[in-house]
Structures are given as structure tokens and as C-alpha cells.
Amino acid sequence: MTIKPLSSTSFHPLYTAFNHAFADYEMQLQPDELKSMLIRRGFDADLSFAAFEAEHIVSFTFNGIGSYNGLKTAYDTGTGTLKAFRGQGLAKKIFEYSIPYLKESGIHHYLLEVLQHNTSAVSVYRNVGFLVSREFNYFVWNNNQINHNIQPLESNYYIQLFDTYLYPSLANFWDFQPSWQNSFDSILRAKEKFIHLGVFSQDALEGYCIFEPVSGDITQLAVHKNHRRKGIGSRLLYEVSKLNTHAKTKIINAEVHCNSITGFLKSKNIEVSGKQFEMIKEI
Predict the structure, then answer these.
(1) What are the tens digits of pLDDT across the range 18-54?
(2) Closest Cα to residue 29, out of 272, 195, 246?
(3) For labelling, which of 140, 160, 187, 264 has a CA lying 20 to 30 Å from the CA of 251?
(4) CA distances from residue 89 to 30, 119, 145, 211 in whole angstroms, order as listed
(5) What domains, with CATH codes, occur in the chain?
(6) pLDDT, tens digit (0-9, with 9 covering 90-100), for 50-108
(7) Cα dihedral angle (185, 186, 187, 188), rounded to 10 degrees?
């Protein structure tokens, strides 16, 4: 068995390994969905690593590379081990093998998210020095499950497609900082796949939603604090539900302390599906 970078490995064996490693996972990905995920999260094959038995991947870490809080950061976009090879400490060995390469590339932080109920993975990350930085809720629902009960927008509001990159002050709308996969850097990597909807009043943006129809992924949904409880969020959610081409809709990585999004979704008959830790390690 050898550990080496994924620089010369094509997509098919990556998908095969990912599919087998996460066969018992809550959400399964089709090949196009995995490709999209890797692009969005900044996958860098040169700085991603796997354990090979002969020519077959048996354990892997797919790393994204980008900026986080102004520092060059590696993001664990997927770590998995095939069932028959678990219990051998391969994930830890791959991590230890990768650190010198990441350091040499000028990376300062290693970031990841992990399901809280995946206690074995959480334990592995803690043992190699990762610390919990935030806790997230995630929400996944069937499209026919949602209670829209929307009210008409006030006459001075209108909804239209817009270019979020022309609005540098969108952070003023947020109740928390978006996670790596929901950041503008992530969205920009696959910008042609996203729909950007805004609600305006006299040409001023009052609420917006960024949505990926093929995956059902709502990456950002925010309403200016002065314009909440006026039906803006409900209207945005209703509009993206009509555009969704996936069987489900999801909002991943909403901070657990953000009662505004949790309460809003609960009013739509959407409950928390599960929780994740965001963890980070200085390297």
C-alpha cells in the first residue's frame, strides 16, 4: 500500500472510491454532482492524497485550496475509507503524509466540516489537532414538504435576477459568516450553475437568494434586518422552489445560534435534519 498525491488520477477512480466510501451516507452523489462539488470547493489534485492498494484507491482526502479569513487554507472537501480497510488508521496516515506538502505550499490553516454523530471521524480529527470553531445545522427537505403560505409582497417590492458581485455590502445582510462551501469564492468557481434572485425596493436590494437548481442547494438566503417579516424570505424560497430541478432542497451549514433562519424554516414545516462541527487546525 502506498500514499501519494492524486495529481495523475482521473475522475472515474475518484468517484468510484468516493461512492464506495460513502455508500452508507445520508446523501448519495451522482458523478456530475461530485464534479460540481469538487469545483465549488476548490479541489486541487496536486494537494489531495490517497492510499492505494495496487492501483485502487482505498482511502482518500480531497482537498480544496483557497482563502479563509484572509489566509491561504486547505479545506477537506471529502475524506473517506472503503469499508474493508477501516480500522487501520489510514485517514490519519494520509493526513500526516499531506502536512509537509501543504506547509510547503504556504498553507496556514486546515479546515473541515464533519457530522456530529460521526463520532469516530470527530475523534480522528481531534486526535490530530483540529479544534471546533463553529457548530452548524443542516436542513434537507422534499420539495412537496414545504408550507409556502406566502403573502403578497408590498407594492414597493419587486423580485428579479441580479448580479451579486455588483453589491459588495451583502455581508451587512448576514447573521453569520458563510461556511467555505457557501462563500462567494466557492460560488464564483461555478458561477454559471447558480441563480441569483433579489428583492428590491426603489432599486435598493432588500433580500436575496443564491441557489443551485441542479443540486437543490441554497447557498445563501438573507434579508436586510430592516426589511424582515415582510414576506421577502418566503417569496424568495417560493421562487427558488419553482426553479429547483432536484428532488430535494437543502440549506447546509447554518450556525446553530442563528435563531432567525431556524425559526423561519420551522414556520415552513422544515425541521433541522442534523448537525455538523466546523473544525480548524493551524499548520
Answers:
(1) 999 998 876 678 899 899 999 999 999 999 999 999 8
(2) 246
(3) 160
(4) 28, 15, 41, 38
(5) 2-107 (3.40.630.30), 139-275 (3.40.630.30)
(6) 999 989 999 999 999 999 989 999 999 999 999 999 999 999 999 999 999 999 999 99
(7) 50
